[in-house]
Specification:
single chain; about 1000 residues; 22-stranded antiparallel β-barrel; globular; Outer membrane receptor protein involved in Fe transport; receptor; Plug_dom_sf; transport
């Protein structure tokens, strides 16, 4: 209770300044106009109810002008698309009260594996820290197309995915989530589906939002300030809207070494999956255990092998006997075994050296975003417009505690070795010993990202009468540029570290033993305890750390037309056609210590040093590389809707089809298509729908043109000559990759009868996705073996193990070898009850659920079997996931209850769980003693109160019961579990 009280006081303090801004803004506003709703003025009342009342499945009705069918390019009134589309209206966005609209959308059950500020926080080198991107059906963000007003957005990462944090969030009136392939309509990447953000292009008035929040642990303090305005001029022909926002979340940084997480969270148990390396003794090979202590390092150092094994050092450098746990006794042999413990681990004992608790639970994030749009109605049904979106997102995370270095060799003559240890060396007759340390004395690495987006769009859209029928047109040019800077601070140069710990005495002074290192500034490092000198720290951890500078550009020209040129026996035949040209480019530059001095010439900040590797890879982590690449896309599409039944006896039915031909500059021509239909049965409100499609995903810039990384393989096995050879591994892109091909099928039934059961909507859909030619990475040995066995001849040209003109090499690349198969069900329901039990207002009940029957990945490698990860709760694909919302609203206040749940699962479907009498453990079917990972249930509550018709206060409490994440041998899975705990938010919205 004390902690909660402190958190509440901090929440009030965080709200004071923003609230003051809101009051000032309200005082200077022009004449108020309480006329804005979640829907644009062009939408009909029926459309408005569909969009704002419920996120239940929409079939894609179109209004008289605006495109509101995300699953199709056809915009003709009365058209119904067969692809199920979930719609989140502005009302639902506001009710969920999140600092980032990404979080609201990502709660949908069909979105599995989306990233955000709680994901990728353990990473140093990926460049995806703090990146908010969606993944539909668990097939990955790279297979989900995210649009803004139906238009592409420049990627915020070389994988091509955009960052939702850079979108103009206050002007978004709804989000359409297409749960199915849409490549025939929208092009590459729409394999899992499409997420389309629709802005209010005709907004009039001024509105704003001020929000603050923090967790029950008193951290991750949040501030959100948003302001938008719009007006019409020149007799309602000129429309101007603009918005700006500032958001800041403190994040939840790393905890202490051992098991103490940030903020006093106590759920971390250092759970570990221990491999006994015993396959046939009737007991399981793998053991799932808590409080596992590796015995090859400690916080301030441990002698890990030989006659002195088990001597550890405290922060002052004093030796003491390490407590192994499990009753472990050091064997004091050359291998470093510990009797009474498992291989590599003891249970309990001194856990202070564990580094996992140092990981950030959520990245710190700061968002600044500005958006503007000017539209001019040059005709009653025609508009030209231009938009500008400029945004910046900065994030910060701590990947892990310290910089762990086991398996070091220390000379007994090292002058930093304590006298007691030197004497013990003499007694034992040894001259060196094995040593491991978490390097807590060196501090913790920090990763900072800075993404800046500049996006400009110019276009025209409208409707014209041609040959007696109305035709809609939508054309635009988009240019986007994204700059991403990644900077790593407090990161060591590993080879300098190795030189610094190898100390000797020269002329009475302690110096680095290597003369070349000494001549180039080496300063000796005392590795015993936690008191390194400032000079040593400056040498091994230079002030200018690892960095990466990336520039990405995207240019798109798109032309789309839609109309009904003639009618069939059942009604107007609608068609849509168009074309698109797209050009994608990226260039990345990195620091010379990581990329290599030949590619990044040294300067004063990065002096050349013969101790370091000239070709880079010198950092402990974060060895970024240089690279560049570009490709172009030309495509054309045709889509048609043919009504086939329109009668009282037969109902109403239509068949839709589409085809798109796409020419990639890197991989040639590929086709996408879809065929489907809907049937409104004679039973009022009952609809059957289905669609099957061929969808594509082209290789992205990273897969095609990855910046090269070279490593040495000293004992690489050559199967052609049955010998081990020295080879270089070059990790590079593969310009010969071809598009992934997917087959999407959905079949469903929907019910909505305003007469029989007013306010009720139900839908059930079955889906199946099969993706072939999946782009996947292969290891060097796999590449050579696949060629040797003649399984994948395409790998034979990427290596040479008998090279007379230079070193042997293997180019490690991605290939189109793997496949993915997933299927399951989507279930959605909503019910709105006006004046429930005679009370004023309305009660709205909504529920969405997704079931994954199978999620089978086949690597395509010999000796492996396909892996079904449905129900694996250390991944992104639980068997069941649902979201339920209940809202009671009157003219004065509202109350919201929300439940989020996913089902129990396991570590992996490949495991055989047993405790005794276990079968022989194999690589494909290993045995384990505990394969259970529980699901989770989260309960949220929120509410609003209208102070005036124009000013509303609100609150929200997420994870009311403060549910902890499940124990996991891989720290935690933030893609499924809430890692922060209970969160409080409150704020004020105003609209004039």
């Amino acid at each position: 209770m004390t902690r909660m009280g402190s958190g509440a006081r901090r929440l009030r303090r965080s709200m004071m300044a923003p609230a003051s801004l809101a009051v000032i803004a309200a005082c200077i506003m022009a004449t108020p106009s309480w006329a804005q709703t979640a829907t644009s003025p062009q939408e009909t009342p029926a459309d408005q109810a569909a969009v704002t009342a419920s996120p239940a499945t929409q079939e894609g009705e179109a209004d008289s002008r605006d495109i509101i069918v995300t699953g199709s390019r056809i915009t003709t009134g009365g058209f119904t698309a067969p692809t199920p589309t979930t719609v989140i209206g502005e009302e639902q966005i506001q009710q969920n009260t999140q600092p980032n609209i990404f979080t609201t959308v990502a709660q949908l059950p069909s979105l599995q594996g989306s990233t955000g500020t709680s994901v990728n926080t353990f990473s140093t080198s990926s460049g995806q820290q703090g990146l908010s991107s969606f993944s539909l059906r668990g097939v990955g963000a790279i297979r989900t197309l995210t649009l803004l007003d139906g238009q592409r957005v420049v990627g915020a990462n070389v994988t091509g995915v955009p960052d939702i944090s850079l979108f103009p969030q206050l002007l978004i009136k709804r989000v359409d989530v297409v749960n199915g392939g849409a490549s025939a309509s929208y092009g590459s990447d729409a394999v899992g589906g499409v997420v389309n953000f629709i802005t209010d292009t005709r907004f009039k008035g001024i509105k704003g939002n001020v929000q603050g929040g923090l967790t029950t642990y008193g951290d991750n303090e949040q501030v959100l300030i948003q302001l938008a305005g719009g007006t019409s001029l020149l007799n309602d022909s000129l429309h101007v809207i603009a918005s700006t926002e500032y958001a800041h979340e403190d994040g939840v940084g790393g905890g202490e070494f051992g098991t103490a997480l940030a903020g006093g969270r106590d759920w971390f148990r250092q759970s570990t999956l221990i491999n006994r390396n015993v396959l046939n003794d009737g007991t399981p090979q793998y053991l799932f255990r808590d409080y596992a202590q590796p015995y090859n390092y400690t916080k301030y150092g441990l002698i890990t092998a030989g006659p002195l094994q088990g001597i550890a050092f405290d922060q002052a450098g004093n030796p003491f006997q390490f407590q192994y746990g499990s009753g472990g006794v050091p064997a004091r042999d050359a291998a470093g075994n510990v009797r009474g413990c498992f291989p590599g681990f003891c249970l309990g004992g001194d856990l202070s050296g564990n580094v996992d608790a140092g990981r950030s639970l959520q990245s710190k994030i700061q968002r600044v975003n500005s958006y503007g749009r000017i539209g001019y109605d040059f005709a009653p049904n025609g508009e030209i417009y231009g938009t500008v979106n400029i945004g910046q997102v900065k994030t910060n995370n701590q990947p892990v505690g310290g910089m762990n270095r086991p398996n070091l060799t220390i000379q007994c003559a090292n002058p930093f070795v304590p006298a007691l240890i030197k004497a013990a060396c003499t007694t034992a007759g040894i001259t060196n010993f094995q040593y491991g340390t978490s390097n807590a004395a060196l501090g913790n690495t920090q990763v900072y990202t800075d993404r800046r987006q500049f996006r400009f769009v110019a276009g025209a859209k409208g409707r014209e009468s041609v040959a007696g029928s109305d035709w809609s047109y939508d054309m635009y040019y988009e240019h986007g540029t994204n700059y991403t800077d990644v900077d790593v601070s407090n990161i060591m140069l590993s080879r300098r570290f190795n030189q610094a710990i190898n100390a000797t005495t020269l002329n009475g002074a302690i110096v680095c033993a290597d003369a070349t290192a000494r001549a180039n500034g080496c300063q000796p490092l005392n590795i015993f305890g936690g008191n390194p000198s400032a000079a040593a720290l400056n040498y091994i951890i230079p002030q200018n750390g690892a960095y990466q500078r990336t520039r990405q550009t995207q240019d798109v020209i798109s032309l789309n037309f839609s109309g009904s040129p003639f009618s069939s026996w059942a009604g107007p035949v609608s068609v849509a056609f168009g074309g698109e040209f797209r050009h994608e480019f990226y260039r990345v530059r990195a620091d010379p210590y990581g990329a290599g001095f030949a590619n990044s010439p040294a300067n004063g900040a990065y002096p050349a040093d013969p101790v370091l590797l000239a070709d880079g890879n010198n950092w402990y982590a974060g060895n970024y590389k240089n690279g560049s690449g570009a490709y172009s896309v030309k495509e054309a599409f045709l889509e048609a809707d043919l009504p086939i039944i329109n009668s009282d006896a037969g109902g109403r039915a239509n068949i839709t089809g589409a085809a798109r031909v796409t020419d990639y500059s890197t991989s040639g021509t590929v086709w996408a298509w879809k065929l489907g239909g809907t049937w409104d049965l004679p039973v009022d409100g009952l609809r059957i729908r289905g669609v099957t499609s061929r969808d594509v995903r082209a290789p992205n810039l990273s897969e095609l043109f990855a910046a090269p990384v070279t490593t040495t393989l000293p004992g690489f096995f050559d199967p052609f000559n049955n010998v081990n050879v020295l080879a270089l591994q070059n990790t590079i892109g593969n310009v010969n990759l071809t598009p992934e091909i997917a087959r999407n099928t959905t079949l469903g039934i929907a019910f909505s009868n305003s007469q029989a059961i007013p306010g009720l909507s139900l839908s059930v859909d079955y889906y199946k996705i099969k993706i072939t030619d999946v782009i996947s990475s292969l290891g060097a040995q796999d590449i050579v073996n696949l060629c040797f066995l003649n399984i994948a001849p395409e790998t034979c040209g990427v290596f040479n193990l008998n090279n007379p003109n230079g070193p042997n090499f293997i180019n490690v690349q991605s290939f189109n070898l793997a496949s993915i198969l997933t299927d399951g069900f989507d279930i959605e329901a909503s019910y709105r009850w006006q004046r429930p039990l005679g009370l004023p207002g309305s009660l709205t009940l909504r529920a969405l659920a997704t079931n994954i029957r199978r999620f089978i990945t086949d690597t395509g490698l010999p000796g492996t079997i396909p892996n079904d990860s449905a129900g694996v709760n250390i991944g992104n694909t639980p068997k069941w996931k649902w979201l339920a919302v209940q809202t009671y609203a009157t003219d004065d206040f509202s109350l919201l209850l929300q439940e989020r749940w996913f089902s129990d699962g396991n570590l992996g479907n490949q495991y055989i769980e047993c405790t005794t009498g276990c079968p022989g453990s194999t690589a494909n079917r290993p045995t384990i003693d505990n394969n259970f990972i529980p699901g989770a249930f989260y309960f949220d509550v929120g509410g609003t109160y209208n102070i005036t018709p124009a000013v509303t206060t609100y609150f929200k409490v997420d994870n009311v019961f403060n549910r902890d994440p499940a124990r996991s041998p891989y720290f935690v899975n933030p893609a499924l579990y809430d890692v922060l705990g209970r969160v409080f938010r409150a704020g004020v919205r105003f609209s004039f």
